[in-house]
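Consider the following assembly input.
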Amino acid sequence: MTAMIEISNAEKTFVMHLQDGIELPVVRGVSFRVEPGECVVLSGPSGAGKSSILKMIFGNYRCDGGRIGIRHEGVQIDLAKAEPRQILSVRRATIGYVSQFLRAVPRVATSDVVAEPLIVNGVARAEARERAGQLLRRLNIPERLWALPPSTFSGGEQQRVNIARGFISDLPILLLDEPTASLDAANRAVVVELIEQKKRAGVAMAAIVHDDEIRHLIADRIVDVTSFAAAA
Amino acid sequence: MAENQDAAADDQPLLIADRLSKAYGRLTACRDVSFALYPGEVLAIVGESGSGKTTLLQLLSAQLVPNAGCVSYRMRDGVTRDLAALGEAERRFLFRTDWGYVHQDPAQGLRMAVSAGANVGERLMAVGWNHYGRIRDTASSWLERVEIDVGRIDDAPRTYSGGMRQRLQIARNLVTEPRLVFMDEPTGGLDVSVQARLLDLMRNLVSELGLAAIVVTHDLAVARLLSHRVMVMKGGRVIETGLTDQVLDDPREPYTQLLVSSILPA
């Protein structure tokens, strides 16, 4: 009963009303759990629904059936049925998400983009910026870029800013969608180290990684998403 | 689910709309709208022109009287009251202190011929401030917060650019530390670059001050940037509602799918 994530029979279908209501079943019967300190990697070919599953756990995609149990502040709640305010509270205190792409807000400096998750949880601005700086340095983002908004950065730099923003918090659950996709070997190694650190801190992680070598390094367990195929 | 309700019981709604309807003759502008807004929450109302967004905003802010349903508001003393039952003086007090209303056209929310300082100071005087020096200091610090050069404090807003006017309107509204701000297309008439600055400013102010806000917009990018929750309106009805990124990334209703798919990629 200590699982941080406990999904049972979750399913998702897209109904495309603009294409004559065509139904696109994505996944069905999704069931797995993630314990504290464990990294579960979702595997399967593109289009199998891996990202959709992470988005369902983050509350970004709605879940059409089943249960998405999340341990939030000591109680398991069902995110599939939670109210918007509750999902927001879960995102503040429990679940962090490193998406494939950074959605940058215009005009906000890189160090503030990274520090924001700490600030909303009440960490003082100066301390949050300090910790943001440490992570950015570790991820090899040159200090002269910290005051600039990341929208003009290269793909790899934006991805590292995104990773810093995702890893800065001390949240008990972290969802990782291709965190190493556009990184060079040195930065991939940093991400592997960051993931190791989170494991030692007891963070439960669900990840998507295509790189076999990285998957081998971080995965404690692999969940094959093709077994949740919902082919109609 | 009982387990889900426990965590939500920690605070109470600031504003509750209960089955609000409004018709102009045979034309129904707004039908059967219900929701609760919590302190610190930003709700976006989206939909195209004529969908009833502005009518709804006017009903919520007691500027229009509904044909059916009611709006209640938790006053500063913690008592939730039906807005229709408030006296005129009480309603005015709400408007001057606890609420802000940001119009799309700053000329509607500002007095264009008096100085910027007076525009901000006027709200303070309305709540009893009478020390000129303190009013001026507070007005200057608010001009700074909305990134207006304090050197322009004695100039009238008709000499300001559109973006500056809109920022001044925001300062005028926030100076009395309201708990709820209504915004009607706040970035409507502005250039894209000016919009980005204003949005960033509003986003920061809302989170620093813990403001609740109801923002009417036809621009889904504004909704995504500012709001926690979104209501999609069509033909006077709320057709879809939920967490902003959920509604925008996984729209369920045909009309919402159309809105989301109509955004031009930058």
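Residues 69 and 162 of chain B are 37 Å apart (CA to CA). Ask yourself how this observation constrains the way the partners meet.
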